[in-house]
């Protein structure tokens, strides 16, 4: 009998050891996949030729004609670096980038964009809060370009406080009209919005573009979303500083885009620091482009929400890797949001090695963001691994709120520690939730509530 018990004990020990090894191997495979995404991203390269805007007659009172002519010349001659030299340069309208051009903002240079909304006509094709439309041009716009960059250590100033800042309070009628057009399938060429509609443009927008680098610059005072990538791929945004504090001043928006590295940046924003989206409701389903294969690492975030997915995510979001990020005081630190009309899915999201100073809600899964119109298309949430998260303070530690018809599924939280939380957890309608070494207020939480 003793021999049989000993044999069973040995088998159990081997099984536990094998399970632990397989778990560690699976996690290693996950982060190897992240490294492969980064290795596969192609950075742009440019011929060794420069085009300085002063050689094109740049005037500090309006440098736009010289900037645009330099871009056209660089593109025509096979590419190169368009240099904005030291000084303050007013830009009376949008800069439209072209392939094989590196727009370089030199140290000590500042581009200050016009505060007059009329300067951003005529309209261009864009995606506004997840619905395609023709609207005022983003301040820097790139449509179907390849091998393109914005670099340097200078400043881009959107000057929104003197122009677009008042538009948000006036946008509701046009916002609702556009959403209705998207829901009803109005042809995109008939969705045209202008000065009396008050839909703010993004600051920097790449639309259907590839091999993109944004590096080193400081961006402030944005009208709306700061760095907006739509239907784009092979994206690198690194060592960028964003200081823009109004609502909807999201630092980076990856919108139905793939193969992206967001690395080494500093965000102080009035909305999400980094957010991943893929379209809104029926218009997102029509386009049907996911956001996937995205690596977010070594960034600093403060202000509003930090690492976010949604709420416009109807095309689906998957294979997202967030590691080694540091958060100051934020609203929601790690935040997944949709509502019951979105459809789509958020799945295969991996987060590790995150430090948080303070958060209103540390880890948040929100399935009914800003309510809904009918509630017939809840989003799928499935397969999340959150590990090695430390926070000093949170009002709510972990909030996961699925619905009975569509529970959140397969969420694993490993090595999470919150020193001080007013409410440790708020959890409902979850299948496959597992806590491993989760400590809140100095107490180990072994079993999440049903």
Question: What secondary-structure arrangement, pairings included, does this model have?
Answer:
Layout: H1 2-40, E1 50-52, H2 64-76, E2 80-84, E3 87-91, E4 95-96, E5 101-105, E6 109-113, E7 124-128, E8 131-135, E9 140-143, E10 146-152, E11 155-157, H3 172-184, E12 204-207, E13 210-215, E14 218-220, E15 227-230, E16 233-238, E17 241-244, E18 252-255, E19 258-263, E20 266-269, E21 274-277, H4 281-287, E22 291-297, E23 300-302, E24 307-309, E25 317-337, E26 345-366, E27 380-401, E28 408-428, E29 430-440, E30 443-445
Parallel strand pairs: 1-2, 2-5, 3-6, 4-9, 5-10, 6-11, 9-12, 10-13, 11-14, 12-15, 13-16, 14-17, 15-18, 16-19, 17-20, 18-21, 19-22, 20-23, 21-24, 22-25, 23-25, 24-25, 25-26, 26-27, 27-28, 28-29
Antiparallel strand pairs: 7-8, 29-30
Shape: globular
Cα distance spanning the termini: 40 Å
Give the integer mean of the pLDDT values.
94
| Helix-and-strand structural type | alpha/beta
- Note the beta-strand portion: over 45%
Number of helices: 4
Rounded radius of gyration (Å): 24 Å
Number of strands: 30
How much helix, percentage-wise, in residues? 10-25%
Sheet having the most strands: 28 strands, mixed
Low-confidence stretches: 8-21
